[in-house]
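User: Quick sanity check before I run a bigger batch. Here is a single chain. Can you write out its predicted 3D structure?
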Amino acid sequence: MFSNLFKKRKLQIFAPVNGEVLSLDKVPDPVFSEKMMGEGVAIMPDEGNIHAPIEGTVILMPDTKHAIGIRSKDGTEILIHIGLETVSLKGNGFNTHVIMGDSISIGQLLIEVDWSYLKEHAESIITPIVITNSSDRVIQFENIKQGFAGETVLMTVSPL
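Assistant: Done. Predicted structure follows.
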């Protein structure tokens, strides 16, 4: 009966965008493929915008709008990096719907993305979803090929 009280709760990380789910080693950037930022997955978007993969708080929203950082209630920190070399776009192709400090819920629209613009002006539209504090987390990856924003669980995370 009491054993359930002491079980570590697992945080489900949902897909933030629709697309093909890939392992991080498929990302053509060593910062992500060599997991310098942490463990995670990537999505090759096929449509849609960026939605909240968890319930939490926005902890990073650069002026360039190309990435967003979120912290869950259990302290798990997630970085969604939209495309590669997109910082150089200086915010073009992105329209944000949240700001630093906002509380967000699963599936909430975070950033509108003009994928056509990104395909034309960025190195790649592949979108890494990284647990930046993965060194003190246990991560279990789901064996899936296609993700749907706010519906498909990509991975579960729990503190060590």
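DSSP finds three helices and 14 strands in the chain.

User: Great, the batch can go ahead then.
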